[in-house]
Design a protein that fits this description.
Layout: H1 13-26, E1 30-36, H2 39-49, E2 57-62
Parallel strand pairs: 1-2
Length: 64
């Protein structure tokens, strides 16, 4: 059975804000992401985290 192809962001605007205003300040070292569909999704989150978050690892649930 084939699922619907939805073009949804890998993280919400609220997730972005939480990562920047809370996560980075707390020194997180891993981010869990559900619904990753392509490498560009991870690149996008990496860009949001910036240089301060370069050390952060991802744990993903990959969707095809």
């Amino acid at each position: 059975m084939s699922g619907a192809n939805l073009d949804l962001p890998v993280i919400t605007e609220q997730d972005e804000e939480d990562l920047i205003t809370f996560g980075l300040k707390q020194g997180i070292d891993i981010v869990g992401l559900s619904g990753v569909r392509k490498v560009k999704d991870l690149d996008y989150v990496r860009e949001i985290l910036g240089p301060q978050g370069a050390h952060i690892k991802f744990m993903t649930k990959i969707q095809n």
